[in-house]
Amino acid sequence: MGWPLAVLGTAMALVLSGITVVPDAAAPATAVANAPATAAARPNIVLILTDDMRADELRLMPNVQRLLVRKGTSYTNAISPHPVCCPARAELLTGQFGQNNGVQNNKGPWGGYKALDQPDNTVAAWLQATGYLTAHHGKYLNGYRRVSSPHEPGWTRWDTQIGGEYSYDGRALFADGDRYEGDYIADVVRRRTNRVLTKFSRMAGPFFTFINHVAPHGAYHGGRWTLPRAERQYSDAYPDLLPPSYDDPAFQERNVRDLPSDLQQPPILTRTLIRMARARARALRSVDDAVARTIRRLRALGELRNTYVVFTSDNGFQIGEHRQVGKNLPFDESFDIPLVIRGPGIPAGERIHEPVTLVDMGATFLDWAGGVAPGRPLDGLPLRHIGRKHPRDTLLVQIGDSASDASDGWKYRGVTTRRYLFATHASNPNRGILFDRRRDPHATVNQFHRRAYAQVRRELMRRTRLLAVCSGQAECNQAFGALPEPG
């Protein structure tokens, strides 16, 4: 198959500028036919991803508030439907749930980069085939260590870390062989990103840039996990900050005996949780600075007006709620993520409360690019269609993170609606959680075995079974109708 002239022209220009182009032979031919007639008129897309950031931590980032929240639209009910690193990133890259793209966990037989079905068939490849310049910066999928090849199909600039992803100010190794010692990682990723943005701006055609920042994920030093490390100027920031749910009944929950046994944990030292909340906030300040400088670079290049800037996280994080620390847990604090978008036609200062997910972002990127056709069936919807053309009322959520989970790779699977959060253990459907947000907004009473919720539970289980095997937009985005009222 011949390459589109837009791609060949872009390739020649990039070779002259010192950027290597790797054509993607697997990119769908149908995408080319759907490309707008004038490539230069199509918008740029910059996706900025944090790692393990809670939705309520957005308030700790003054630059993001000023440049994105006030200048764009916030989605207040955005979730990561599989709230852990690799599955979430795979959802962003493919627009599919884990049962369809292959990535169900971070590791084990169903997890990591090796589990991704058709790794060359991604959003980047579909956009590249229509003339987009594409760049990836920072962490990719867990387990990616292709040291011998500095390229990945679909990406014009493959600027991915293959070592030291969580070292913060220690060693960092990139796929092109560049090494850093002692540089703070948010600054490294920002410098490398802005350098490529400058080069792309000089080329013909739009660009898609995927930026992965490590904060506020924990640090890895000397063979052990520690709190995230702050840049020197922020080492004493937020001295009085408390965990976000400190005054809520979910924090250090008194009684967790109504939860499944694998979710019952002893109380955590409150001072440990306070230190964690402050360390995370301090690390996020450096990402906040990086975002500001990336926006500044886009403005200086004359690209900002024609660029969609998306700021979000791969998953949320528990900081003491329900006696839990971490992610990949069937609680709202794990699922809830920040999502803010600034760009052409996006209203400033608006807040949208319709539930959306990371799976929707792939369809949204293609929609922004002029209706580019995907190379695989999409499970998500373009954001502008949600709540209008597609009044879905139930979203799939799922958990799974190790080889020791159920034989099919899952641990918990369920659904979320505006009122309920429901999930059952993959190896035993008689174990699970059911929280009624209307009556119990802090999720301190598990209604899973309550007789009054029996009909609700049966209907949510039915929806779970249907969505757990869904594929494509029609199956994965359904309007099931009203749920029965609890007795």
Automatic annotation (TrEMBL):
InterPro entries: Alkaline_phosphatase_core_sf, Sulfatase_CS, Sulfatase_N. Keywords: Glycoprotein, Hydrolase, Signal. Residues 43-370 form the Sulfatase N-terminal domain. Pfam families: Sulfatase (PF00884). PROSITE patterns: SULFATASE_1. Residues 1-26 form the signal peptide. It comes from the Bacteria. Belongs to the sulfatase family. This is Sulfatase-like hydrolase/transferase. It comes from Nocardioides bizhenqiangii.
